[in-house]
Amino acid sequence: MPEAVLQQAKEEILDWQGSGMSVMEMSHRGKEFMSIAETAEQDLRELLSIPDNYKVLFLQGGASAQFAMAPMNLLRGKNKADYINTGAWSKKAIVEAGRYCEVNVAATSEAEKFSTVPEQSTWHLSSDAAYLHYTPNETIGGVEFPFIPETGDIPLVADMSSTILSRPLDVSKYGVIYAGAQKNIGPAGLTIVIVRDDLIGETLPGTPAMFDYKIHADTGSMYNTPPTYGWYLAGLVFKWLKTQGGLQGIAEINQRKADKLYNAIDQSDFYANPVDPACRSWMNVPFTLANPDLDKIFLEQAAEQGLVTLKGHRSVGGMRASIYNAMPEEGVDALISFMAEFERKNG
Length: 347
Ligand SMILES: *Cc1c(COP(=O)(O)O)cnc(C)c1O
Hints:
single chain; 347 residues; alpha/beta; Aspartate Aminotransferase, domain 2; 2 domains; seven-stranded mixed beta sheet; three-stranded antiparallel beta sheet; 9 helices
């Protein structure tokens, strides 16, 4: 979370703008919360230039619930979907979709240990797929697509949990974009779905109301009580992004942060990043130490400098610096200095 947003939330926590209530105490249908909700949606629409024929939903259940909601809503009479497998999150989406339809894995980088993105010319897309699903940024592997897949009339579905709002995006290329909030939007508990309106309204038989995009769209995400406090905090983050120059502004900062860190890793024999340079994530930078016996002491000494949550995902080990929008450039500079110092002492 950007510090400025947490400061504002702190100031408003007992009394939101003279209402005498905390946002947590408001009725989600009251005029105060309605204004918070509408402003947040408006600001997100502006930031991403979301076309009018797209609905924006503020849901719960995380990106993991979307792994099921996507097929439940998007199969629309078909029985097949194409998926691209570029890592741990793609795999989970594939397993979940397999409960509802035939899944064609049109391309996978598993043989390359998920260190790259297969070129589209090598994919085996199906002409009868209901949609193509991919993961533009694989959070654990630190692999990001350097292109948007071309699917013609077949709707493109993207799990953007760890890259949404990191740079400008052409929403019109997508059928559905979804993201758990906790990486680049706000606190855990909120999930944002951006869906083209012609794709909703034809769910699989037996789909629960809570999993139906149309029900959420028709009720302004208030079919039941939405995650109000997360929605409010997301709204503050959207306002903050506008002060950073919008997505163009934050993109410049993000690119600079990532370039610096990859340069520092590439220039040293002590640290390494395994990802194809063309597909390196701006948000998640995994790296290993030449001597993994030093991992533990690296993490301990980093923590002493206030550099925390650097442990790599338990499935891959090593280190991972997640440098989302809210991580200031000085934070990346501090990490790079610490890494150089640690190498001097231990290299
Ligand atoms: C974190 C993450 C998820 C899981 O999100 P939940 O909100 O915990 O369900 C899914 N996909 C990607 C790309 C992620 O980064």
